[in-house]
Amino acid sequence: MRRKLVVGNWKMHGSLAENAALLGALRPALADLGGAGSAVCVPFPYLAQVQQALSGSPVAWGAQTLSEYAKGAYTGEVSGAMLKDFGCTYVIVGHSERRSLFAESDAQVALKFEAAQKAGLIPILCVGESLAEREGGTTEHVVARQLDAVIQQVGIKAFAHAVVAYEPVWAIGTGKTATPAQAQAVHAFIRERVASLDEGVAESLIIQYGGSVKAANANELFAQPDIDGGLIGGASLVVEEFLRICEAAQG
Ligand code: 13P
């Protein structure tokens, strides 16, 4: 049985005061949950705060992107080793907002994935189609292209130390969730594609769903056989919502 993993992606939200309140409530409540894994991916400046607040708890933390470079003259960039210095377990790579708003290509995402693993981080690789792509019937083609770019760069075995998140772009922050059946179909497609190269890796690969997950729809989504938890945006900023989503992942 794969364990489930729920990760909150705070995106560009928070302040020292807001985070302190959120973390103060999450830490004891999530410690009581046990079982399923949970983590928060926060803006870079708050990594030290989160490290201090969550050290010694079962809740992990991480960042939302990283540089594909290890070090050097890359003003404004943050390396995997720097994230590791702040105790990060995870880093999100290839989020659709990075791909569409900051022009990250499939090839660049693959390099970031590789850089994350080289630094000892677990990349959470986001894949997903836009509304136009879904309506044009190219969902599988797009997801396969995004996945294959990374497989080509790092090899399939690298996915034994990675998480994949299926995040249909049309469902992110829109309140429109993929139906459990729609999400399951793409998750099964991803797992089959990985299985065609390595069955063992596919069987243990955590594939999260992301896109308007809330307490109200988490149970149904997480009950699908290939949905192993969620990558949560808006609802991860609301204590009660995030806790109930983590509870849903407990099964
Ligand atoms: P929402 O949960 O706000 O739709 O965001 C999903 C997401 O992009 C998580 O990475």
Task: Give a description of the structure.
By secondary structure, the chain is α/β, with parallel strands linked by helices. The protein has a single domain, classed as Aldolase class I (TIM Barrel), CATH 3.20.20. About 45% of the residues lie in helices and about 15% in strands. It has helices at about 15-35, 45-55, 80-85, 95-100, 105-120, 130-135, 140-155, 180-195, 200-205, 215-220, 240-250, and strands spanning about 5-10, 35-40, 60-65, 90-95, 120-125, 165, 205-210, 230. The protein has an 8-stranded parallel barrel, surrounded by 7 helices. Helix 5 packs across helix 7 (about 140-155) and helix 7 (about 140-155) packs parallel to helix 8 (about 180-195). Bound molecules: 1,3-dihydroxyacetonephosphate. 1,3-dihydroxyacetonephosphate binds near residues 9, 95, 231 and 232.
